[in-house]
């Protein structure tokens, strides 16, 4: 096969709103690309991520676009096929070549192939006309009946990334374009239409790769025999293909002794084996000129989700290679709303950040995309498990045609594409649609209209059982396994997966402890982006932040949640007074985000194995915005990221309420026992010891030991002036009996020393009195500066050493407001 990428195109607005200077203008445009990236690259639109530019480019949503190039291909030989392969079209398109219609498309989540052999031989215009997806979706809603959804525009009526139309963390841009490569492919006789390797490990430890191969024959030559070779590492299989064969399975077996298992990070290594599939003409005597090849990687591991009934309800536990694994996870959204800008390098950086926060799972959420092969490759290499939603989120979806056929086609294609990846551990039917149908007033509004249940309970499990039977499937997130939504509420914390959104929307984060969910697949709290990101995207150029900035048009355009700032303030108020000053408010709300989520994670982990996973909403952002993300839209880590790193550490000491009293929960998520002495001390904030207790403890591998803290050590005398510190094996947990705003915290509890050190500075910080949330924000001095830790709580007398990378930073500025911050400096002097 000869394959050539078509990268040079032109873009022209064809109808709908167009500013005068663009009307009739054809702009050179790179593919992969979209309307937005093409115009942005030529400075023809302002950067929609900056200031209020999102509004300035809103016209683009209802514009029709033409992508065009000249296809200059030699004529096809009599037995030669010439195909055009569009790997991804965003979204509603009609295509033509030299004036002849090729077909139309309406699904960005699948690829399209057109046989153009009869149309090549002379230069011809290849034209892709894109209609605005929202206009098509509105017409479709009109045609088949509008369905409930979480946002204003009918994203449920067209197979375009749901968050294209805006989300509570995302802009509403609605790109249109060729978002994946376009290729001309010339081939003879036959090609590999689809290769799906399914690696399994049997109970006796032997491994097997079933390589499913689908072949398309050209239909132009006399059908003769073919040969398919498969090589997995240095093992192989070969099969002769009789004429007329369109597909089958080749098996490669691996002896038990040679199966090296793939493990999630923290549980073992990630051995990956190259796999190559080659198609030859004839009976295999001549292997010099393959017709087609396919290559990838596979690995050996098993994965199940254990959904057993027990005394607490119904479990939801990942079991990898027979071993139960606590999922330390984060939800993943597309890393850039302008998808074609997401590079492998950027994905690698983001997955490294996930690993850096001690995560072992990412959930690819249903309002985004099936991610690129790069994403799953990186996760394979780094041992990050991937939970993949089918792309349906927060809406009732029509089951009428063509929707049903489109969904089935996209799932078949993507399930086969992702099947080689050991990181993929779960297919999940949708995000919140079963819950929404049950709870959000959809039933009444739907009447007799379809809403998607056929997909979740019938179509998806059937297609997946056929295409990839090696992965577990869950109906939706949240759901209660084994029950109908009528029997058990889909979001019942005692059964299966649970989304905790009452915190954030309605109630204080202290209420995270009200439930012990079996698996927390969404929970989270908002906080603003880092200062340097705000500075680049939303803050005015002046050094000072203008009065009322928080309520300004630009700041609110980058805060998409309903009453987002109100929820931030109400979420802060029980813990700290809400600052008027924007600089303090920014720090306080970032800190509160970190506190809230850390509180939840420590609670969930303390309940292992009853709670078997915590997937925080959300790891990343797709542009600069106030959101639930731990890493902001410019890739900078927010205080939440550091809080996750503390809360998800392999070994954790946390003080939790149990049986009416307090207990130290010692969480050991490693394969080694954790032995030592638990030392608890009740002290004044200044460090005077009031009571102590000790106990010798061994925490078994992958388990939690609860050490009751009783008697004097837990008997607080003055809740505003005392703190409980628990140390074990080098880790520390703090408990206070009062909210920060009611603690008599010293407003200036730190002694600091800065010394130059390697590529930056060593900042040593010693607490003279209890210092909470000690954080350096070096991006205040230099947008490139970074620090290795944040949100550190220090009892009186304790020292922390921070490493700041960066050059030319003023040492004095490094240890002063607004760079060095604490929770103390948000509390009025006690
Ligand atoms: C859940 C998610 C997203 C949303 C998040 C925050 O519903 O599934 O739809 O962004 O909450 O509101």
Automatic annotation (TrEMBL):
Keyword Ligase recorded: no
UniProt keyword list: Glycosidase, Hydrolase
Skewed-composition ranges (Basic and acidic residues): 486-497
Occurrences of domain Beta-mannosidase-like galactose-binding (ranges): 9-180
EC numbers, comma separated: 3.2.1.25
Region (Disordered) residue spans: 471-497
Top-rank taxon, per record: Bacteria
Matching InterPro entries: Beta-gal/glucu_dom_sf, Beta-mannosidase-like_N2, Beta-mannosidase_GH2, Galactose-bd-like_sf, GH, Ig-like_fold
Top EC category: hydrolase
Catalytic activity from the UniProt record: Hydrolysis of terminal, non-reducing beta-D-mannose residues in beta-D-mannosides
Endpoints of the signal sequence: none
Gene Ontology MF terms: beta-mannosidase activity
Name recorded for this polypeptide: beta-mannosidase
A GO biological process held by the record: carbohydrate metabolic process
